[in-house]
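re: the backbone from monday

yeah here it is again, tokenized this time
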């Protein structure tokens, strides 16, 4: 099937590459000429495991191409996927400028029956707006070309996006119940047929419900994270081990284990943005989502948690101290620095006078850009931030190690070498990578999330 993907960001590239892998003829289009040139030269603008190789294989086979030619892109695909960014506005609402511009492009050049698929995460009612824009463009040209607009939200995790796409747990498809909607449904069922051979993963619903489902899913995940972080903070106070609690409640099949890990807060391009957009939508209908307001507040406070633990240990004045930071991206297997907890932590440490040496396996270039922006008004603070070449260089001579992102390479370091490199054998772990008892045996002072108090109590008992 001939498919056009509008947008070559995270969702667009993964969607296009995976559909090409299944034998479809895919044309990816973007208005960013530099990005298209990079893709045509064999590079990719994001870090996603396996994506570069997947694109290269399908480019070689002639199943995926990249272009800035908007007219050619509309002529190419009978199915047009809108997969552009929807960043947050200052009030928390989703910025739909790119989505609506894509709709204008489709309407401006369309001349035959077309299925327009909203793949971008958009507020409820966006499909209707896209439909009106396309219809207006067609009317202005005097063209009578039938089309249908459907909602097909993505559920991709950064760092595991290819596997999520190729082995989906569900495929949500929102179509109208009229003849045009049913025709579109039939076409998309054929497109997604390879994913349904073992069992049917398609969930059919109306368009508005499909749009709402994406926001509801991310809001639930964010809620679970913030809930566990609040419990972890309480566990620090009452002497409980949040890891034991996680296993105890996760064993309940009504709860499950997913997204129950305590830490130093969530970030990225999805959860913060989508929670904010859903709150904004609810406000428009005078239906305040009180739980999600709390989720946001808890997450903002949790990003301060590591800095508070550090100042509780060293005092508010950190001048003369240097901290090594492992992990800058908001999660492992990505270079995404958007809303990353590391940005809050490092800004706090620098504000208290510390020096910071940081390392991330994939996000060094993006981190340099992010911190240049964050610290542009405080050049003295920026001068106290250094990006290391590797993880052990970061800790060499540091007063403590702070772990922010749970990359695999950080999970089993040479602890003897780590002790020797640090001025003080001291770790602040924002992702609970290590066991407190094991750290105590190694002579390392260890402060985790929801586990530190347990270590202290056990130490007293041993004494």
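seq for it, each position gets an aa:
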């Amino acid at each position: 099937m001939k498919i056009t993907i509008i947008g070559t960001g995270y969702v667009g590239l993964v969607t296009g590459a995976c559909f090409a892998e299944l034998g479809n003829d895919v044309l990816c289009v973007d208005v960013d000429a530099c990005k298209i040139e990079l893709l045509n030269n064999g590079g990719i603008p994001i870090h996603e495991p396996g994506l570069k190789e997947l694109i290269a294989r399908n480019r070689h086979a002639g199943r995926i191409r990249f272009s800035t030619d908007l007219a050619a892109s509309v002529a190419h695909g009978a199915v047009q996927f809108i997969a552009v960014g929807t960043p947050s506005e200052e009030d928390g609402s989703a910025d739909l400028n790119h989505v609506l511009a894509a709709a204008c492009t489709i309407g401006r050049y369309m001349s035959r029956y077309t299925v327009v698929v909203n793949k971008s995460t958009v507020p409820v009612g966006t499909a209707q707006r896209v439909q009106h824009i396309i219809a207006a463009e067609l009317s202005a040209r005097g063209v009578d070309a039938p089309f249908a607009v459907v909602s097909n939200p993505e559920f991709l995790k950064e760092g595991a996006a290819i596997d999520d796409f190729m082995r989906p747990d569900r495929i949500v498809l929102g179509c109208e119940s009229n003849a045009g909607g049913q025709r579109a449904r039939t076409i998309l069922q054929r497109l997604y047929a390879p994913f349904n051979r073992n069992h049917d993963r398609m969930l059919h619903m109306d368009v508005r419900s499909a749009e709402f489902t994406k926001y509801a899913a991310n809001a639930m995940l964010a809620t679970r994270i913030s809930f566990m972080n609040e419990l972890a903070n309480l566990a620090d106070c009452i002497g409980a081990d949040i890891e034991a609690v996680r296993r105890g409640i996760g064993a309940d099949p009504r709860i499950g284990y997913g997204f129950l890990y305590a830490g130093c807060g969530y970030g990225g391009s999805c959860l913060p943005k989508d929670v904010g957009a859903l709150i904004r939508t609810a406000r428009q209908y005078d239906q305040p989502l009180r739980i999600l307001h709390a989720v946001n507040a808890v997450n903002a406070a949790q990003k301060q948690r590591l800095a508070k633990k550090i100042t509780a240990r060293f005092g508010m004045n950190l001048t003369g101290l240097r901290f090594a930071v492992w992990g800058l991206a908001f999660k492992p297997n990505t270079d995404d620095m958007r809303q990353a907890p590391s940005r809050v932590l490092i800004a706090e440490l620098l504000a208290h006078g510390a020096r910071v040496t940081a390392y991330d396996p994939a996000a060094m270039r993006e981190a340099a850009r992010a911190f240049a922006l964050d610290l542009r008004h405080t050049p003295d603070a920026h001068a106290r931030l250094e990006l290391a070449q590797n993880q052990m260089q970061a800790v060499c001579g540091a007063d403590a190690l702070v772990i922010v992102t749970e990359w695999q390479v950080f999970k089993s370091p040479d602890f003897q070498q780590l002790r020797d490199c640090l001025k003080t054998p001291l770790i602040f772990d924002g992702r609970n990578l290590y066991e407190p008892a094991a750290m105590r045996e190694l002579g390392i002072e260890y402060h985790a999330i929801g586990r530190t108090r347990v270590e202290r109590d056990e130490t007293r008992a041993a004494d």
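The domain at 2-205 is CATH 3.40.50.720 (Rossmann fold). The chain has 20 helices and 14 strands.
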